[in-house]
Model the fold of this input.
Amino acid sequence: MSSNLAGGHVRTQTSSIITTTVCFVLVALVLTGLMAHVVVTMARSANEIDDARATRAARAAIAAFASRLSATTTDNAVWDDAYQAISSPAAADWAYENWGKTSADYALYDGAIVIGPDGSSIISAYAKGKPFEPGAFFGDAFYRQIDKAAAPGRGPVVNFIKTETGIALIVSQAVQPFAAQGELPKLSVLSLYKDLTPEVLSTLSGEHELEGLRIAATPEAGLLSTPITDMGGDVIGHLVWPSKAPGNTVFHQVYPYVAAAVIILVMFLGGVLLVGAIEARRLHQQAQAAIFQANHDSLSGLLNRHGLLALLEEFEGNDFSSPRLFLVDLDGFKAVNDAWGHAVGDDLIRIVSRALIACHPEAVAAARLGGDEFALVQIGNAARKEIEETVLGLFAEPFKIDGRTIEVGASIGSAAREEDMTPLELLRRADMALYRAKENGRGRAIEYDPELDRERQRIAEMEGLLKSAISNGAIEAFFQPLVSASTGVVTGLEALARWRAPTGNISPEIFIPLAERCGLIDALGVHMLKTSIEHAKNWLDLTLSVNVSPVQLCNPEFAAEVISLLHELDFDPKRLTLEITEGVLMTNPEQARRSIDHLKQVGIKFALDDFGCGYASIGALRQFGFDRMKIDRSLVSALDQGSNGADVLRATISLATALQIPVTAEGIENTRQAAILREAGCDQLQGYLIGKPMSANDISAKLQDHAA
Ligand code: C2E
Ligand code: MG
Ligand code: MG
Done:
């Protein structure tokens, strides 16, 4: 999964978790709000309903109180006996006996007043059984009440009235016969009053379920109230009482449950938020890790190719930080892996990684692009050479790993970013320079040059030409004689490839490596083997030597292909010698051994070519079962240059002969060389002195001359 995909996927997951959590919390909060609203509304409604009931009850209490006193007054005023008595001279006594005395201790009224027909003379006035002055006790309002009540045909006049001590209910009615006959004269008026005492209020509150009922001058905060008005409509006091607030009672009953539910909900939401936060955090970390992994190499911890390109992209368009890219490839890393195992190889990679990232202050980033290939990004003014020397300096001393001394080198290819250059192009250029550095040998540093691209182009063109040359037979086999050192008789021929290109002859030293690199060597090898065998069939009794590239030998199908070709062409395998160079013995010894063993079984012989110019040991000769050794031309030509060349040659040849491996000397150009080599023990000679590589026709002609 790419970093973007991994990161994007996790980001989507994170945002969906956050959305879900937020939705959940919002829904839960809305539900809680609704629930709280319902509870509060229910409590408030219950309170309001009960308050309204209580207010009605208070008014009903007042009305009941008034109607009771009113009924009592009517009972006493509309009474034939009273009418007659009050009209008589004994009115005062009669009034005292019937009403004044009673008022001393009577539940229905506290005082009784009888005012004469003139509306002002007091016939009788008693409060609580004692005479009193109504005008002083009630004030002016009393006489207005009498006035109203005196009107003929009037029923009882009921009013609250302010008294010296508080508020009282007073009912006045004209004293009259039960059944009036004709028009009555102006009548006396009986008034009964009852103080609104705490006892009265207590009785009223008991009767009407109004606990705490009392009188107050003004309404009081937090208490229910209803006004008490006098005859003139003026408010003279208020009945006040506390609300029962049943909603509050219910609320207080359910409160613990509601509180518990809220606490549980809060804890639950807290839990949901916590889980959501933890999950979101985990996903965030996962995303960060995925992005890190996608951009970094797990072994070294450095950037990987993807991370390097992403970093270079960040520098794109930033003129102040034009980076230079160095690609560093370890020389000899494979040998470390092969010799010490992958664990040591991994340790080495880690050590080199740490060293690279810290090697220079201007090295802002390091990356590992492959097994043993690293990249270094430089930003700054330090010279390219300075960085190269610093990097190569890291490999100057051997590395110490677990007590082992490990020596590796490095090759460097570099390129500087030019304007509008993509990171991929920068990488390609540095890579091309590195390729060239590796080609040039170990420990080299090469900077990208457009010439490298042109050369790559030329090679590509040449590859095309080589491909068609192989298929259309433009590659020809030439033959160089191999003669017996003792007799000088031609015993064999070595086939050498010749390419007559339209632009001129191209050396096998050029086109063989090219064919190896571009995968044409197998086709070229088969072509050479086939054409040279076809010619060699005409030269009976002579052996045929054909050069085989290490790349061919590493092909697991090579041996079978050669054998089937010999069958096809009906050529005696015992006449064929395959010449191989030592390279393959180092790079892929297992496969080389399998191919050699397989081919030797059918009688094909093997010669180790160019011995002495590389690292191949005499031991390798024996180990791989070579039938012949060919001493490299450079050793032969050295005979003409130095003093001890002959000694080296002699020693080499005697070692081979001691192992019973015959030796061919190649590149003999003069008789002195031939004499030394013959004397040193070579049994076969080859070189311009004996014969240059020739076309098959020339060889045939030459052989005929000899025979003649
Ligand atoms: P080699 O197999 O060692 O072949 C000998 C080379 O030395 C040949 O060069 C030959 O022309 C040259 N030579 C022989 N005697 C003398 C001498 O007295 N003086 C000098 N200066 N040179 C002498 P050539 O033909 O250019 O081949 C070069 C190499 O290319 C061969 O070295 C061989 O490794 C490779 N090669 C040639 N043909 C083939 C082929 O068909 N297949 C493969 N795989 N490699 C081939
Ligand atoms: Mg050869
Ligand atoms: Mg050779």
User: Anything to note?
Assistant: Residues 494, 547, 579, 609 surround magnesium ion (ligand 2) (CB under 6 Å). Residues 152 and 186 are 8 Å apart (CA to CA). The longest strand covers residues 490-501. The chain has a mean pLDDT of 90.
